[in-house]
């Protein structure tokens, strides 16, 4: 075996190892998703409760609270309403309207009042339903603050934003906001019928298992190819002892040789 063949074999082994690790990573993500689905199912089945009983004094919506149903009573502050741009619900582009709900204890909660499908190519909704005046009771599902990496989409600018982020909104609106928000499901008095509701969570295992199988299959292909070339192509192209050359032309007889 020559040096180049050995280097190629090591490269194949490295590739197979990487494929195996990627397959294991997908199985790890599958376990995480199953655990998250179990929490989501439990939260959806739980009875509605006041928000302070669920979040406690920290006031932070975490993974363990996602999709938990809460009931809150307060008054909307329409002067600090935010239009969420570039949103999609069921593959339809549009806007979401987020309005702070002022609670009796001095805190405030961001309420996603609903989705307004985009009618044409407008950059802002043509009509935003007015908030109810006076006290309202909102029933909705808790959601974590949205984060977009290094983008500033969660910081309101001129009454608009791209993400719903409690701490970023609090800095601009000057409110003592919960870290998270509520997607409205019911309101008393009723929510404006112009709003579309939100779909529930996707509770499935996703494609992680099949992705893992693909990576393991690629690893088997790499190992199988290595075994095959070891048997057929690892001799470095040199003739083995005892091999006889084929089709060797014999020298012609010398001219003028004796009869």
TrEMBL record:
Q: Where is this region: Disordered?
A: 235-259
The name of this protein is: SURF1-like protein
> Which PANTHER family did the record assign?
SURFEIT LOCUS PROTEIN (PTHR23427), SURFEIT LOCUS PROTEIN 1 (PTHR23427:SF2)
**High-level lineage:** Bacteria, Bacillati, Actinomycetota, Actinomycetes, Propionibacteriales
The subcellular location is: Cell membrane; Membrane
Q: What topology does it adopt in the membrane?
A: Multi-pass membrane protein
The portions of this protein that span the membrane are 209-229
GO CC term (a single one) = plasma membrane
Q: Please list the residue ranges that the record marks as compositionally biased, kind Basic and acidic residues.
A: 236-247
Q: Which InterPro entries match?
A: Surf1/Shy1, Surf1/Surf4
**Which species is the source of this protein?**
Kribbella jejuensis
């Amino acid at each position: 075996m020559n040096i180049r063949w050995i280097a190629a074999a090591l490269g194949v082994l490295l590739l197979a190892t990487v494929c195996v690790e990627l397959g294991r990573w997908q199985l790890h993500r599958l376990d995480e998703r199953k655990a998250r689905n179990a929490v989501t199912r439990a939260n959806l089945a739980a009875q509605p409760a006041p928000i302070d009983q669920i979040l406690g004094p920290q006031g932070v919506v975490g993974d363990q609270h996602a999709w938990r149903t809460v009931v809150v009573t307060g008054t909307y502050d329409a002067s600090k309403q935010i239009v969420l741009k570039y949103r999609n619900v069921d593959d339809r582009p549009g806007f979401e309207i987020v309005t702070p709900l002022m609670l009796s204890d001095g805190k405030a909660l961001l309420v996603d009042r609903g989705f307004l499908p985009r009618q044409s190519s407008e950059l802002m909704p043509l009509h935003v339903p007015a908030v109810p005046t006076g006290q309202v009771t909102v029933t909705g599902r808790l959601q974590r603050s949205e984060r977009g990496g290094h983008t500033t989409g969660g910081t309101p600018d001129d009454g608009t934003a791209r993400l719903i982020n409690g701490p970023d909104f609090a800095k601009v609106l000057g409110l003592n906001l919960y870290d998270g928000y509520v997607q409205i499901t019911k309101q008393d008095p009723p929510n404006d019928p112009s709003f579309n509701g939100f779909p529930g969570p996707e509770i499935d295992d996703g494609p992680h298992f099949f992705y893992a199988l693909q990576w393991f299959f690629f690893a088997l292909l790499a190992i199988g190819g290595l075994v095959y070339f070891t048997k057929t192509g690892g001799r470095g192209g040199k003739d083995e002892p005892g091999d006889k050359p084929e089709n060797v032309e014999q020298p012609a007889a010398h001219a003028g040789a004796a009869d």
